[in-house]
Amino acid sequence: MKVKSFIILQVICLSFLWSCYSTPNSEFAVTDKLKIKALLSDVKTDPSIKYAKRFSLAENEKCRVAYLFGNANNMDTTVTFIFLKDTSLKINSIQNIFVFRSSCKKIASLSSVYTSMLCELGELSHIAAIDNIDYYNNVAIINTHKNDTLALAELSKNPELDVEKTISLNPDIVFNFGMGNPGKGPNEKILLAKIPMVLIVDHLEETPLARAEWIKFIAAFFGKGSTANFIFKAVEKNYTELKNIALQAKTKPSVFTEIKYGDIWYVPGGKSFMATFFKDANADYIWKEDANTGSLHLGFEQVYSKAKNADFWLNLSLLKTKKELYAMEKRYAEFKAYRSESLYNNNKIANEKGYSIYWETGIMFPDKILSDLILIFHPELSSQIKNDMYYYKKLD
Amino acid sequence: MLLIILFLAGCFFSLLFAGSQTAELSGNSFIFWEIRVPKTVTAILAGSTLSVAGLILQIIFRNPLAGPYVLGISSGASLLVALTVLSGTTIGLFNNYFLGKSLIILSSVIGSILVTLLILFLSKKVTSNVILLLIGLMLSQICGALEGALEYFANPNDLKNFVMWGMGSLSNTTNADLLIYLPIAIVFIGSIIFFIKPLNAFLLGQNYALNLGINYSKNRFYLILISSVLTGITTAFCGPVAFVGIAVPLLSRIIFNTSQQKIHLFSCALIGSCILLFSDVICHTFSRSATLPVNMVTTFIGAPLVIYLLFKNKQW
Question: Looking at the complex, does the CB of residue A186 fall below 8 Å from at least one CB of chain B?
Fold first, then answer.
């Protein structure tokens, strides 16, 4: 009897308590939804977005719109950002649709990639917070932080975002790296505080130019579309020219990348961003046949059997010398690239903590990376490339 | 009385000091009501649910080394949550808030129940408490390995959330989550009042309980269900929290030298809450800008206590 009454009591209590639960969905949200639908009915898509697949821009007389296709598994619109031209319009943000009345003046940029894009767009003075100063080589950012740590807060000293600090700062927009679910964990609380957060998913793009094109998405928040177009056009032009120069090479050297961490050797998939770089630099990436856009998780044996005779070995973590590489794993000496000293890393310019500028500006300027790669793989073409290497250097 | 003062002090420090330095509570009620309050309530709920679950397990197994974490029950919950989270996103199960949360809770509870039943079955085959503890640790390792395999193939988007969840966190709960967490915790902890008599009898063994006219297997089943729900719900919201479930009932027995389980039930809830409230404060004490994972602090408290007891009672 006792047990039965216990079960009945539990069911009654839980039913009563859950009956109090209701999803917040006011009549205002419904009205706003209708207004937004009407507002976006005649927007025209910006045809200048040629490479990126994870965002699109559109415009009509009353507003500019940025659509984010953020879900890793499909291409549905996950978040919409509306920038009103007519500020007299009374429309509020609703779930997954953020409405901005004016350009963002207080920015939290939680990746050095977006911070670099913001600086390039002339928005340095509006950056109020970054992720972690340890990742930066950007002199302007380092000096601003050094002079006044309050003027440029650090929000991600931890693996997790400092939610309280972010909410206290109350930025107009938070640009965050698109890992994780926007509705979970710290991000959920930021959204609850009605601070718009953009989970940028440029890493899901498959080509270097597609990732570089994300500067146009960021520019949309500040009405700087023309500046972004100007920057991107120059990058696109250089990249295309360099690609054509690389095609003149008579050899096609083989290349592999990365080192192993623990037992796993993470290498870029055959359809990845890095694989596209190698293809465009007219090099033979040893996993080019692979169909993955992300990374492959391999063992030493798998890499060795395929890469032992490869001509070049690139992107060796934070290493600077051949000695350091050998100290990590003596079997690395068995690779032909090690013996022929064809080892190049992307840390020509790095800060005290070892973080390279490659990770800050390389996404925005893929033409510079391609130029470095052509100089590495095809030194005979150096006469056609006017500059020295930007990011890469040979291991000492 | 001292425990109640400690509890109130824990609430006070957790509400006012366990957070980022720049958060000015006076000027920012959002931080207080939407971040600090849910975190403090979560610490109280997680501490009390895990401690009470640990107390029940220690009585059922008649083993002072039993606890949801060391017996692998939290890992079982964690494994099923991993399976749900890492596969559910793909088929869009988490687009609906309530459905998503309910699925996580359900999978966490089912994971807890499955491991508890397995441990219960194995406990009949072994007589040594230490061997049972080792079996629990092995089960925990197996769950961990399977979880690792799932993570290996997971989408990086889900993986980051899952890895952060696995570290144990009190601060990811929102007020909306508490509407689910709080009633379940209260109802299930409250329901143990119906089982005080069986619990007192279980402590003296199965035969004694049967002589008192207690339906041993039925009551044991309900108590396992309660402890699994308590462990499962906390694991669903906070991730696996280490050692609270084993250490708190032991502390309660050291403080209150009584066989009255009513007293231990109350004291476990209170001590568990205090430990997690102060753990939360300690997590924010070392560095204002960098927060330690709560599991690190609870392990520092729980693990030495278990080692001490293993040394003290060599007959285990």
Answer: yes
Query: Structure pTM?
Result: 0.80
Distance CA A46, CA A291 (A): 30
Chain B residues in contact with A159 by the CB 8 A cut-off are 164
Q: A17 and chain B: CB distance < 8 Å anywhere? A: yes
The answer to whether the Cβ–Cβ distance between A164 and B19 falls below 8 Å is yes
Residue A23 forms contact with B (CB below 8 Å): yes
CATH ID of A239-394, from 3.30.300.130, 1.10.760.10, 2.60.40.10, 3.40.50.1980: 3.40.50.1980
pLDDT value of residue A17? 59
Residue of chain B whose Cα is closest to the Cα of A20: B179
Kind and range of the H or E element at A266?
strand A264-268
Task: Write down the mean pLDDT value for chain A.
Answer: 86
User: Tokens standing for A134?
Assistant: 């340890």
Distances (CA, A) of B227 to A241, A339, B12: 67, 61, 29
**In DSSP terms, which residues pair with B85 in a beta bridge?**
none
Q: What is the mean pLDDT of residues A22-38?
A: 69
Write the ipTM: 0.74
Which helix (H) or strand (E) segment holds residue A68: the answer is strand A63-68
All residues of chain A having their beta carbon less than 8 Å from the beta carbon of residue B158 are 181
The architecture in CATH of the region A103-200 reads: 3-Layer(aba) Sandwich (3.40)
Mutate to test the interface with B, among A164, A191, A266 (most CBs of B within 10 A): A164
pLDDT, one tens digit per residue, over B99-155 is 677 788 888 889 988 988 888 888 778 767 678 778 888 888 998 888 888 877 766
Q: Which chain B residues are Cβ-neighbours of A188 within 8 angstroms?
A: 172, 174
